[in-house]
Specification:
The protein is α/β, with parallel strands linked by helices and 390 residues long. The chain contains twelve helices and ten strands. It is 47% helix and 18% strand. The chain has a ten-stranded mixed β-sheet with strand order 3-2-1-4-5-6-7-10-8-9, with helices on both faces. The structure holds guanosine-5'-triphosphate (GTP).
């Protein structure tokens, strides 16, 4: 499919940039347009691939913002986005909507600009355009503290309500021991881009061959349009094509070749491996309402029988017949890769934990505010007492 990507806030811009990089590296054509929106001027200079004229600074004239960000305050992030919707609209005027199958709004939910702004813009896009609006929301890691959890829990509800589906990515599940924060983010942004691009980039009309079982945009839209949250599974296998073609030539010369069953087992095995590996956000696979499998790789590797078996297997795992499976032939790919979309998952322990932490954080923040008010009241009383003798 083809999408217009809007990266909101710092994380949103960097992830949008990583998607551009991955699609360029793999010769895909997922993004018809990309726009980075931020309230902090400095963060808009971070992306490498997003063109300069597709970076929009909002809140410049707001007395509390002035191009310096919203300081992890989602209410201010939402206010600034609402105030500057006209500017965002003007920037989106150049999007070739006739050529776009969906909008994808990306944001980290633990801060202010993305957390507050992404739901506002998603809701607006849904009112303005007929195309579906998908969200990609990053959950903060536990060690970012209660304020980030509170921001994320609030945004999660608003962002889910404002989109046709919200794909989740959990920073906690993807943090690697010993990595610096930025090094870790670079790594996770690439992994996230790999999954999103393999999944949504299927069925984009580009130079790749179209197969009989090709996935198309309407299949992806049908699976995603559940108004709930989604997660993505992924696995890949190196093919080492040079060695392989040499070996295959020898095999063929000796009357052997990789059989249909070998190809089928490879595809089916890779789908099982993906679903049992780390999801973008951990969730109980059985709780998915709908799912979709995309197998991408050189045409000779894309076994129809393998896809069919994988689909049947996933039906039993999700206890649902709403499973679609298709392929995405890539002539020059040196990998066989599988992305599985699990849509409207309802058993997501990380979301429950986030909501609990948010309640604790809210209570603590309120207690701190009450204590501060009491202190101020006491100070005023003391000062009045001292003035009394007059
Ligand atoms: N996966 C990933 N997560 C990130 C990245 N940068 C930040 N985050 C996460 O996103 C959350 C929001 O951070 P930012 O995107 O910097 O915040 P913002 O939306 O720009 O909002 P303000 O800085 O408060 O104006 C953080 O709490 C992190 O959990 C990134 O590059 N990758």
């Amino acid at each position: 499919m083809h999408v217009a990507v809007i990266g909101f806030g710092n994380a949103g811009g960097k992830i949008a940039d990583a998607i551009l990089e991955f699609e360029a590296d793999t010769g895909r054509s997922l993004c018809k347009d990309v726009l980075a929106v931020n309230s902090a001027e400095i963060d808009l200079s971070k992306p490498d691939r997003i063109p300069e004229d597709r970076r929009l600074l909002i809140g410049q004239t707001h007395e509390r913002v002035k191009g310096r960000g919203v300081g992890a305050d989602p209410e201010l992030g939402a206010e600034v986005a609402r105030r500057d919707l006209g500017e965002i609209d003007r920037a989106l005027d150049t999007v070739p909507v006739y050529d776009v199958d969906a909008f994808l709004v990306v944001a980290g939910l633990g801060g202010g600009t993305g957390s507050g702004g992404a739901p506002v813009v998603s809701r607006h896009l849904r009112e303005m355009y007929a195309e579906p609006v998908y969200g990609l929301g990053v959950l903060p890691s536990t060690d970012e503290g209660g304020r980030a959890s509170l921001n994320a829990a609030r945004s999660l509800q608003a962002f889910t309500d404002a989109t046709d589906s919200l794909v989740l990515f959990d920073n906690d599940a993807w943090r690697q021991a010993g990595e610096t924060l930025q090094g870790g983010y670079d790594h996770t942004n690439t992994e996230l881009a790999r999954r999103i691009t393999t999944l949504l980039g299927a069925g984009a009309m580009d130079d790749s061959k179209v197969s009989e079982t090709a996935m198309d945009a309407s299949d992806i839209n049908r699976t995603l349009s559940t108004d709930g949250v989604s997660t993505i599974a992924y696995a890949s296998a190196e093919l080492d094509r040079e060695t392989k073609s040499g070996l295959l030539d020898q095999f063929r010369a000796n009357g052997h070749a990789e059989s249909d069953t070998d190809y089928a087992q490879k595809v089916h095995g890779l789908v099982r491996r993906a679903v049992n590996a780390r999801l973008t956000c951990p969730a109980d696979v059985a709780s998915a309402e709908r799912s979709l499998v995309v197998v991408s790789g050189p045409p000779e590797e894309l076994s129809r029988k393998g896809l069919q078996h994988a689909r049947q297997w996933l039906e039993t795992q999700t206890d649902s017949v709403e499973v679609l499976a298709g392929d995405d032939p890539r002539e020059n790919a040196d990998q066989l890769s599988v992305a599985v979309l699990l849509s409207n998952v309802t058993d997501v322990p990380r979301v429950d934990a986030l909501q609990e932490r948010a309640v604790d954080a809210q209570e603590r923040i309120e207690a701190e505010e009450t204590a501060r008010d009491d202190e101020v009241a006491e100070l005023i009383t003391d000062e009045n007492d001292q003035l009394d003798p007059l």
